Amino acid sequence: MIELAKEYANLGLWKYAVNCYYWLFNQDIIKGGFSTVIVRDFQYYSNYWEFSNEDNFRHDISTNSVRAIINRENVNFRQEPELIDDNIIGVFGLHEELQVLQRNNFRQSIGNVRTYWYKVSTDEGIEGWVYGQFLFFYPTSIN
After folding, report:
1. Span 65-143: which CATH code?
2. What is the DSSP annotation of the chain?
3. Mean pLDDT, residues 14-39 taken together
4. Domain ranges in the chain?
5. How confident is the model at residue 100 (pLDDT cuts 50, 70, 90)?
């Protein structure tokens, strides 16, 4: 599967490469493992998919074809895409999965990272915003 993912990446088919790494990531979790190489490559290709053709990525979001995995512990879930303390509505743990609903229209720099905020929904239907640095994206369908 790694070879297939790398072949997709060589062809610039980032969504397909991410799909392969999502499968590999899940296999690691099912087996009770945690391969840092798989996680690193999952993040790498996820970033390429997100930024290589932003219109296609935004279209995938609009068709509810993008989900995300929280990639750190204690990630703030916010009511609005702003860094203010009274805006926090919850905290996510590592590897929680979310539906991506929307991306805001501009990149914001926080520290040395410049990315978008994403409106997400939990499986319980609670909606809020997460800064993109804390998300791995994966497709729910390949078209």
Report:
1. 2.30.30.40
2. -HHHHHHHHHTT-HHHHHHHHHHHHHHHHHTT---HHHHHHHHHHHHHHHHHSHHHHHHHHHTT-EEEEE-SSSEEEESSSS--GGGEEEEEPTT-EEEEEEE-SS-EEETTEEE-EEEEE-TT--EEEEEGGGEEEEESS--
3. 86
4. 1-52, 65-143
5. very high
